[in-house]
Design brief:
The chain has 3 domains: 90 residues, no CATH class; 189 residues, Immunoglobulin-like (Sandwich); 97 residues. The chain contains 8 helices and 17 strands. The longest helix has 39 residues. By secondary structure, the chain is α+β, with helices and mostly antiparallel strands.
Length: 396
């Protein structure tokens, strides 16, 4: 412990995947300049502009590709920690976007990807709320989405009402209709880091393409399928996205992705660009995506928060062991947090299967409990740093 603090180090706020730095250790430390994971101590968890960050101290016992920022004395480091945390605290007052979640249904029989949405897996399935205009106003034309999955693919369907078919066909006949003028877009953030994402587009004629972030990637075209079908007053889209195109493993009960469903409609100025989760601007805004889970929402909540509470508790236990000083107040607080968490998890057994306002409220409650654990973790870690700093001063 003492040797770690004598190493050259630094203070960083880095993006995370999920809850805490533990889920993004390799990616984040590589971004900071190291070629492999290194020791760190979490100081504070932050939500800034829709993205989740941690403030953490790293030491550099691992081999480095380049030197981290210049070293600082322990006194300056501790002062910097408090200043950074005070500044970051002012950012936390920003209001968060409304919570939107969709629970995809597991299916035993894959659909035929022809754009028609007439297979059994689509019948009676829950649909998203109607897409809204950018800014949140109700769209004049209704568009809804849905999703299901099996061992091979995630399947996404969209139903797009269209009262102006004659005008669209005339525009096409006049050669004025460009590819993707009338299209839908599926955005997936499988890391749930609110930063990286893949975009899949299908227009009403069945043309399709894919982008990794904002950049087109034609190599992906053969790896997923999409189709469209036209009816008298609507057109529909069906897409099959293989798991190995977006992730390395099948989803489980605690998996959560970023998701957005968008529509471009150029035939009319009304409702030209609509979103399931309002991006307040460009479609390519992963920090404002909604959320996709793969099991009924109560099951997801129970597993997601149980794993989060357990992981943070384990990190607190590790830090307390490093302090080597029994603290009755810490033990009492740990028992209280555990009791509150158990009560919250038990309450999730009776919530409705569907999402909506209740789903948002329950997720918010879980987030509040999560932040209590993280606040306790921050306090213990800061105590640990002060303890180690004082010890190092008295050790020759």
């Amino acid at each position: 412990m003492k040797r770690d603090l004598k190493c050259r180090g630094g203070l960083y706020a880095l993006p995370t995947c999920g809850t805490g730095l533990r889920h993004a250790e390799v990616a984040s430390t590589t971004q900071a300049g190291w070629d492999k994971p290194i020791p760190y101590t979490v100081l504070k968890f932050l939500n800034i502009g829709g993205r989740r960050f941690v403030v953490a101290i790293f030491t550099t016992k691992a081999t480095t590709k380049r030197r981290p920022p210049s070293s600082m004395t322990r006194e300056k480091l501790l002062v910097t920690i408090w200043v950074v945390m005070w500044v970051c605290a002012t950012w936390l007052s920003a209001a968060e976007e409304p919570w939107l979640v969709y629970a995809a249904t597991k299916t035993d029989k894959a659909p035929v990807v022809d754009g028609r949405l007439d297979e059994p897996c689509w019948q009676g399935i829950e649909q998203t709320r109607p897409l809204t205009c950018i800014g949140g106003a109700a769209a004049p034309i209704v568009t809804k989405g849905m999703a299901c999955w099996d061992a091979k693919n995630l399947y996404v369907g969209l139903v797009c009402a269209e009262p102006m078919w004659a005008a669209i066909q005339q525009k096409k006949a006049d050669g004025l209709l460009k590819p993707f003028d009338e299209s839908v877009e599926i955005f997936i953030d499988a890391d749930h880091d609110h930063f990286t994402y893949i975009q899949f587009r299908v227009d009403f004629l069945g043309n399709r393409d894919a982008h990794v972030g904002p950049d087109p990637d034609s190599t992906m075209d053969k790896r997923w399928t999409g189709a469209a079908a036209q009816d008298q007053d609507q057109w529909t889209v069906e897409a099959a996205i293989p798991w190995n195109l977006v992730t390395k493993r099948l989803p489980d009960e605690k998996t959560i992705w970023g998701l957005n469903l968008n529509r471009s409609r150029t035939i009319s100025a009304e409702g030209g660009w609509t979103c399931w989760s309002d991006t307040k601007g460009p479609f390519h805004s992963p920090s404002k995506f909604g959320h996709l889970v793969f099991f009924p929402y109560p099951i997801f909540l129970q597993n997601y928060f149980a794993a989060s509470f357990r992981a943070t508790k384990e990190e607190i236990d590790r830090s307390r062991r490093r302090l080597k000083v029994a603290n009755a107040a810490d033990a009492d607080r740990m028992k209280l947090l555990q009791a509150e968490s158990d009560q919250f998890l038990k309450s999730l057994q009776s919530i409705p299967i569907a999402g909506g306002a209740e789903a948002a409220a329950d997720y918010t409650k879980g987030g509040d409990q999560e932040r209590k654990w993280e606040s306790f973790q921050s306090e213990v870690n800061l105590r640990l740093i002060r303890n180690l700093s004082a010890t190092s001063k008295t050790t020759p």
